[in-house]
Structures are given as structure tokens and as C-alpha cells.
Amino acid sequence: MPRQTRVHGALAGWLFADLALMLSFVFIDSSTPGRDGGSVSSTTVVTASTSTTLDTNSAGVRAVPIKVGMGFTLKADGDTAIANLERAIDKSSSRDKDSPKFLVVIINGGAKGFGRQDKRGTELAESFRDILIKQWNRVDGIETYFVVGNDNGINYGNIRLQLFPVKSIS
């Protein structure tokens, strides 16, 4: 007799495990998004159209930067670098190229083809940033936020800039 009790006890454990697995599958199936548990129903979906408009009369930074690329080396003098930047901005198709100030400037120095690419590209970007802060009247060393880095897709001796103009109330 004691042997039969053990068999029933072992079967009870397996029955509990099977029941627990079955309930977990039912729970997972019923909580899966987009599933309705296999029932067929018809649903009417109503969509509302919304649009976002920008207030063109408010001040701030435009979300679309002016993107320019130009040659620059560590030996370049500041006046030449600024003149090259102004020419590159004038050639751009941006409607904001005449903006008097830029609030955010992202500079990536090229380092492709150079041994220590990341270090040399960042050095180019930092050097150009310093020239902008000291000599360019369209940025402010206190208010303008600069991001410098490197881009392994740009040849050494070149930089790529993204300039975010400040839009002022007219």
C-alpha cells in the first residue's frame, strides 16, 4: 500500500506542473497585444488627423541646420578659415544662411587616411572651434554651444559643420 501512495503523489506533481504550464500559456496568449484570443469580431476604427505647425513668429533655434564642408588644417590661419566658412555658407541652399548668429555649432574633423583617426579629427574640430570663438562674430563663446568630434568618413584636412541659426523675432 505505501507504494501506491507514492505513485499518486508523483502523478499529482506532474498534474500540477502541466496545469501550471497550461495556465501560463493561456495567460501569455490573452495578454499578447493585437490578439483577441481567437474570437472573431468586427471593429470600427476611427482615426483622427492631426498636424503640427510651427509658430514662425517665435524666437529660438531652427531645427534644420546649415550643413557645410570645407578644407581646414591645423596650420591654417584664422582669417582664411573664417573667409572659407563664409563662402561655404553663402554657397549653401539654406534659407537661413544670412542669420546673424548661430546658437549650436557641430564640427566634425576629418581624419580618414591618417594613423590615429579619432585623435587627429577631434584636434581639427577643436582648433576650428577656437578660431570661431575668438574671431567669428556670428557665434558667442558664452551662448553658443559647440560639439566637436571626428568623422572617419572625411579625409584628413577637411571639416564638416552643422550650424543651427538663431531665429529672432522681427
Write a brief structural summary:
With 170 residues, the protein is an alpha+beta fold. The protein is built from 3 helices and 5 strands. The protein has helices spanning 2-31, 78-91, 117-135, and strands spanning 60-61, 66-71, 102-112, 145-155, 158-167.
Furnish the topology, listing elements before pairings:
Blueprint (H helix, E strand, L loop, with lengths): L1 H30 L28 E2 L4 E6 L6 H14 L10 E11 L4 H19 L9 E11 L2 E10 L3
Parallel strand pairs: 3-4
Antiparallel strand pairs: 1-5, 2-5, 3-5
Give the end-to-end Cα distance, rounded to a whole number of Å. Answer: 98 Å
Overall strand count: 5
The number of helical runs is 3
Structural class: alpha+beta
Strand content: 15-25%
